[in-house]
Amino acid sequence: MPRILILGAGFGGLELSTLLSESLGDDAGVTLIDSGDAFVFGYSKLDVMFGRAALDEVQLPYADLARPGVRLLRETVTAIDPEGRRVTTDRGVHEADVLVVALGADYDFDATPGLLEHGNEFYSVAGAARLRELLPSFSSGRAVVGVCGAPFKCPPAPSEAALLLHDALSERGVRGNCEITLAMPFGTPVPPSPDTSAALLDAFAERGIEFVPGSKVSSLEPGVAVLEDGTELPFDLFLGVPKHRAPDVVLESGMAVDGYVPVDPGTLETRFDGVYAVGDVATVGVPKAGVFSERQARIVAASLVARVRGGSSSARYDGRGSCYIEFGVGRVGRVDVDFFSGPKPTGTLQEPSAALVAEKQHFGASRRARWFGLA
Ligand SMILES: Cc1cc2nc3c(=O)[nH]c(=O)nc-3n(C[C@H](O)[C@H](O)[C@H](O)COP(=O)(O)OP(=O)(O)OC[C@H]3O[C@@H](n4cnc5c(N)ncnc54)[C@H](O)[C@@H]3O)c2cc1C
Which of 96, 198, 224, 322 is most buried, most CB within 10 Å of its CB? Predict the structure, then answer.
């Protein structure tokens, strides 16, 4: 049996290790490494920030993860040698026949001077938890939701944050005293899907949310966000999406090109023999989102299961995925995107509805059950 080493127990690593365990059972021979205590769905950060869920409700502890054939190690990866398929952690050295890098994307807070000094970010669990304490005291003035770099995880999330902020302020009866501005580097909220972008722009217009497209936030001064094109946006509350980058350990490994790990988009193989990369850490040609990481992991799982059984897999990653979008007032939309099959990416909106709220809940519940055995 090959020794399979998976770095990162996020969307990609959890799905891959679950599938290998389901197919190969006790023989899977998987070691899964993560430095964290718990997995948190990206969208749960919005729930925490707006007080819709408590922090401990959204943390899925790795201690609950018990799968045949999967050994979970809570260690920090400090070096990766992709040629030798050798990984060093704070606890020791691990050698592998197959190495899968699923370490996600980190945040580069320092790339945006003043971000944490004068503003806030909601992309980390800690940042979302801090904002949960801060938001109730914001009752008048201008809130700016601003994106500090692209690519960033879950492109609809800043739009969701602006719409949910509108709801939170309305519920407290202070919306009339507040302005909301959303600034992002894209020309439209969800570029691959014109109908999703149009629906979001309509929702912003209905709610009086100002949309400032085409420029990232490059720095923050006290009470002012400065955009790359020189525009200054005064604010009383700043909710930021930090610039992203691959984890340092990946950048130092020599695997990255232009910031992330290039892969064959069909197979997720890197240029190193026996080394794959999936999800946000990789350049696959799709946005950074959990649904894409998960689907890529399925391709790697099919390939590894076939290899263990002495065959090969013809499954290729198709660049498709469905993302749920919070539109506020208890409605969720869904955009079904396809990045590979046509000359350019396409996306179709399923209109926001209460039914899709239930579907999104089922999406989360089914992963909690499959990955963690939680009801
Ligand atoms: C506000 C917000 C909303 C979002 N909403 C959605 C949504 O609705 N749908 C969706 O699909 N996606 C959403 N996302 C994006 C989604 O969370 C990520 O794209 C997804 O988690 C990426 O999966 P991954 O497996 O590639 O990486 P991750 O899930 O980030 O997993 C990487 C893992 O590697 C570990 N790690 C990193 N460095 C080390 C190291 N040196 N040593 C050991 N372990 C390490 C981390 O602890 C982490 O557990 C959202 C994100 C945010 C921030």
Answer: 96
